[in-house]
């Protein structure tokens, strides 16, 4: 059976076509099985597929609905910006669980959550508070670049980054990075890559506030060169 599924908006760019063609060896298939089949064939699109609904004959279809080659099918992305935001800047406390949920995938056997928190003691000096500032539009854009680099280096790996701005107290999270992958090796490597690359190219600045003073911190990972295409190993 040949099934044709119409695509719209960002899905056209994601799949590189306006109509997705699927061939299966049966006369009918449930929506949930069709979704799983598409995800298996296009793992890089997994996070976007999770937020889409299927339409059958110009009406929304449930996961248990069955479709055949005679049905008019479409994959409908969120219509009002409901797509999960993988890369975010916020002034609020970060919910690590929400960040982790963005990369949850049924075919991934490994997931990691990196949480960067405010440390009190550094080389014998007591920090009382951190304060973050960012060039927000560029920060989000460069975090998206990191996500693309991760997908290029470890195909199928999903990532999400949320960074906090403003004042961040001791033990509170300033950055949360979630990564998931089919295998643990890629997951470990991608997670470390994400935080190191973030420190290298994302325009976010940290001010350390001590009991007796403060200082804005620059690059702490070696000579600063954001024009490098990948991070220095």
TrEMBL record:
<dbReference type="Pfam" id="PF02597">
    <property type="entry name" value="ThiS"/>
</dbReference>
<feature type="compositionally biased region" description="Polar residues">
    <location>
        <begin position="217"/>
        <end position="233"/>
    </location>
</feature>
<protein>
    <submittedName>
        <fullName>Molybdenum cofactor biosynthesis protein MoaE</fullName>
    </submittedName>
</protein>
<dbReference type="InterPro" id="IPR036563">
    <property type="entry name" value="MoaE_sf"/>
</dbReference>
<dbReference type="InterPro" id="IPR016155">
    <property type="entry name" value="Mopterin_synth/thiamin_S_b"/>
</dbReference>
<dbReference type="InterPro" id="IPR003749">
    <property type="entry name" value="ThiS/MoaD-like"/>
</dbReference>
<feature type="region of interest" description="Disordered">
    <location>
        <begin position="214"/>
        <end position="233"/>
    </location>
</feature>
<dbReference type="Pfam" id="PF02391">
    <property type="entry name" value="MoaE"/>
</dbReference>
<dbReference type="InterPro" id="IPR003448">
    <property type="entry name" value="Mopterin_biosynth_MoaE"/>
</dbReference>
<dbReference type="InterPro" id="IPR012675">
    <property type="entry name" value="Beta-grasp_dom_sf"/>
</dbReference>
């Amino acid at each position: 059976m040949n099934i044709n599924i119409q695509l719209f908006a960002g899905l056209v760019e994601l799949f590189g076509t306006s109509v997705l063609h699927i061939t299966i060896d049966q006369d009918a298939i449930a929506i949930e099985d069709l979704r799983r089949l598409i995800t298996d064939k296009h793992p890089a699109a997994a996070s976007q597929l999770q937020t889409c609904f299927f339409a059958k004959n110009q009406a929304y279809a449930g996961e248990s609905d069955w479709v055949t080659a005679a049905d008019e099918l479409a994959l409908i992305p969120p219509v009002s910006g409901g797509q999960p935001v993988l890369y975010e800047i916020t002034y609020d406390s970060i919910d690590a669980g929400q960040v982790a949920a963005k990369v949850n995938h049924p075919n991934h056997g490994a997931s990691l959550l990196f949480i960067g928190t405010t440390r009190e003691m550094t080389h014998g000096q007591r920090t009382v508070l951190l304060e973050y500032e960012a060039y927000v539009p560029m920060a989000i854009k460069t975090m998206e670049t990191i996500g693309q680099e991760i997908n290029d280096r470890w195909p199928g790996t999903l990532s999400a980054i949320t960074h906090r701005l403003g004042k961040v107290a001791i033990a509170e999270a300033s950055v949360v990075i979630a990564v998931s992958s089919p295998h643990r090796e890629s997951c470990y490597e991608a997670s470390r890559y994400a935080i190191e690359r973030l420190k290298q190219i994302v325009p976010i600045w940290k001010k350390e506030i001590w009991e007796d003073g403060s200082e804005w911190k620059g690059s702490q990972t070696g000579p600063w060169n954001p024009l490098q295409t990948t991070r220095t190993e």
